[in-house]
Give the backbone structure.
Amino acid sequence: MLRTLTHHPVARRAAAALATLFGVAVFVFVLLRAIPGDQITAALGTEAAALTPAQRSDLEAYYGIDQPLVLQFFSWLGNLLTGNLGYSTRSHESVLELTLRSLPVTFELALLAILIALLIGIPLGMLSASRPDSPRDAAGQLVGLAGLSIPAFLLATTLLSVLASNFGFNPNGQAFAPLFEDPVLNLQQLLLPSLVLGFGIAAPIMRTTRTAVLEVRSNDFVRTARAKGVGARRLQVRHVLGNALVPIVTMVGLQFGYLLGGAVVVEQVFSVPGIGRQVLLGIQQKDYALVQSTVLVIAAAFVLVNLLTDLAYRLIDPRVRAA
Amino acid sequence: MTDLTRTAPIAVPATRRAGRLRAVLRSPSGVVGLVLVGLLTVAGLLSFTGLLPYDPVAQDPPNRLLSPSGEHLFGTDQFGRDVFSRVAAGVGSSVLISVVAVTLATVVGTLGGLVAGFFRGFTDTAIGGLTNVLFAFPPLLLALALASVFDRNWFTVAVAIAVVYAPIFVRVTRGPVLSLREIEYVKAATSTGQGRLSILFRHVLPNIGSIVIVQVTLSLSWAVLTEASLSFLGLGTPPPAASLGSMIFDARTLVEIAPWTMIAPGVAVVLLVVGLNLLGDGLRDALDPRNRGGRAR
Amino acid sequence: MSHRTRIARSALATLSGATALSLVLAGCSDSGSSDGDGPAGGDLVIGVTSDPDTLFPWKATQFQAVNVLENIYGSLTELDSDMTVVPGLAEEWETSDDGLTLTFFLRDGVTFQDGSALDSADVVFSLESIKDEATAAVAASSLAAVESVEAPDEHTVELHLASPDASLPANLASVNMSILSSDDTEEELNGQPNGTGPFTFDDRVSSQSITLVRNEEFWGYPAGLGSVEFRVIPDESAIVSALQSGNVQMAVFDDPLVAQTAESGDVTVDPTAQLSYHALMLNATRGDLADVNVRLAVQCAIDRQQVLDTAALGEGEVTGPITSPAYRSDPQARPCPERDLDQAAEYLADSGRSDVTIDAIVSQGEYATSVNEAQNIQAQLAEAGITLELEVLESGAYVDRWVAGDFDAAVALNGGNPDPNGMYGRYFTSDGNLNAVAGYSSPELDELFAEGRSVEDPEERREIYRQISAHLEENAAWIWMFTSYSYTAMTSSVQGFTAMPNGSLRFLRTTALTS
């Protein structure tokens, strides 16, 4: 019974995921403490030199960095298990509250970016594949290449300064509007950042689509369908795209996972209060609890998204389901 | 972020080496890529030989923010430094950091993948676990934290990038090694009593060569982008050394009065990445039999 | 983008609400429109790169935190726009003849945001807590001379000193010396500030914004603005964009280039000379630098104007040690006011040393000009045959080394102080708490600083600090370079604001918005 349970693929995946998260926890804990400076010097700057030893030890106790490292680690981990992500001494809020505010922002940003990427990438990929090596293909490939090659920060800063100084369009200069408070402003504020991110992701999606379409079209069943007189358009959409879906879903899942922690630069340039910026700020401020727990949350989201992708993959692809 | 995309491995069966280069040169994108990368690398190499028109870090305040001219091809920046020389030096350090980072990642990652796939058991579990941990860690934040730990210099930055990309090489190589292990001639070699290491390096490694090569070309362009992003965030090679990302960061405030300070490094980084991507495409086409002739369909 | 904690900006300022003209103007502009439900007078948005790292005034050293908190809290004395000490919560004060008792008479009818009245018990509580090491207040050492604090009645507070300290009134004019209600704790105040200042805390969204509203019960003339929002826009060039699109009406920049790009159309930019100073700190206890001739050689080998021109585009002024307007050192009064390589060679010959090598730490990211300054100094010293090895450090690593005094030389931007004793007493007296970092002291200096503290007369004080300044320069304790500007960018609708040499936003209380 126990044997079958531990060998069940889902149980094994879950165990592996937990082990990974534990590894991330250890890693981030050690890494943070290896960065020079602590919370006291981060907060006081050179003024920390004026602290007397007594003041310094009071501050260490205040920030909770007077305990032995092993103790700090396990008390953090123990708190995590009870759902307590810790307390940010900088913003005087629990990390949970901060994360509940910033995670949805990045989540929304990532969703929009993926949506934009799909809207650009799939049609472009199909267009390219419809006539390989034609000017049409070259144009499509060129757009894809641009998406792969233009750094997000370059595109972001250029868009922001050009639009703001020449057209006075700068929704990101206004206070950030949460989605459910002011959806119109919120979407305006996320438009440029998600365009920048989406453009970058469109490239791999375009390429995946193109390759998949070319590959599927060469398969026997498509030839058979064509021989049976299935219309070209229907063929394209039903069969070809249907089969290209598997690699695209994989790609989307991967990209979504990375966006959760990888939108930092764009969040920073457009003042989007997302989770990446939360970590960046935390690293600068040596806000240990904040960085540790947030990185763990991102890692957990990443692992979860991967699991879901895997699941979606099984649902879509009959071959995997059978196996 | 595009610069940190880590795509799934593309399985490429081994082909013979002969004709590969010719195949790359036959694909138009490969040629364009080769030319772009070649030109930029040569310009970058100039910075290591002292053959640049100006010292890339020498300041000349009276001549600040000059527009491009015969004397200063790409103009000068806010400290009167020659933008052309700085861009060349920036490309040089970008190429250097990326090549070192990818080399480190390739060696460590491929070895990890080989060992994990071939020996299985505890080694596999350990390496796989470490890989998973590194994968789950947000890549840019990982590089950022790593780059903050040590004294800042170009090598630290290269190591930080290598740590981010090494796991990809583990993933990409482990799978094929697993299947190679079961192939008849490897089994045969085992039964004839050849040492395991000798089998690993004589029979297994050569067969994953093309997979590794394709991954190297992909990683190079990502490494260039990651290095640029890090220095844009102020965590790349420390100033005054020229770096494309930090040049773009500094130029943001100048873009209206001196657009060349933004355009020159911006175009350089885009061309470098475009070149690496095209070269990678050409190489992939050349190495991947599925694509051979497939394009003509 | 990088968070810039300004160093030692804490020991700074407060300012009187009595700048009559702009006050009246501000008062007029909203007098007709105050019948709405919200406070009238307009809502000002200030763009900042980072939000406060603490809301507890006794521990606030970060620039952004000081700027917010000085508008919420009050201190016994305050600073005017020319850095002179003016009354704050204390209407007046007097020093006993022996200089050992300082009596403060508190203002009547001052209330905290929570409605409770300010009395002498709050002052005693505050000053005693600041002095108590367990509080870890950053201004504790400013009260070193204070032996006890007593409250003879509700409106009077007496400070009994162990030795005279003429700089005390100026030192009390700091947000780190804020008077808190004796009922409050650090824990509570970090969530809900409770001060006596011209604005009260309204709302905060962590790392996004912090909003203050006008304090209708303020003891001075009520502020002209209905509210002030400090909006966090991490990227400086994005703040410029926000100014240009009108989403933000005000911002303060350090970088002249950023300021330059901000100036366009509706946005004006004004430079204000700062008290903080750029210097090459030398550690006279280490290696070759222990020899005064080596330090003097360094001093003579550097053209300060050239450092200023190359590193900071000439945006600033060459300075001596003391930067506060009332006590300013004459930058010409030093050995080699102009660069003199022959003199430098002579000093080096006197020292009998060749191959002088100095290791200097340089911070990256703390402020914009550091690395460029370091490079220029390096190039100039090379011409004099002195090798300066630069160690460029991440700001955390730099601060660690600085705090430990672990350097031969440090390229630094240090905070200034309106009072010269507050500025250098802690560095250059042998028992000063930063003497290990300063790396230099002498019996003459100890004596001069003690004298400076015991003398009240401004003329006499000026003379003493002139001598201190001369002593520091003649011994090349450090190499003082230049002061720079801060740049206040405002849209044309912002009226009545005065920037201060310490970067303080005290004058938000006299500011108004026209529509």
